[in-house]
Amino acid sequence: MSNYQPLHQELYTIDPVAFFVPAFLKAIKDNTEQSFRSIMSEPAPGIFTFEMLQPRFCELLITEVEHFEKWADRTKLHVMRPNTMNQYGAVLDDFGLQTMLKKLMEDFISPLSKVFYAEVGGSTLDSHHGFIVEYGSHRDVDMEFHVDDSEVTLNVCLGRQFSGGELYFRGMRCDKHLNTMGHSEEIFDYSHVPGCAVLHHGRHRHGARATIAGHRVNLLLWCRSFSRNAKV
Ligand SMILES: O=C(O)CCC(=O)C(=O)O
Ligand SMILES: [Fe+2]
Question: What region holds the Fe2OG dioxygenase domain (predicted)?
Answer without folding.
Answer: 126-225
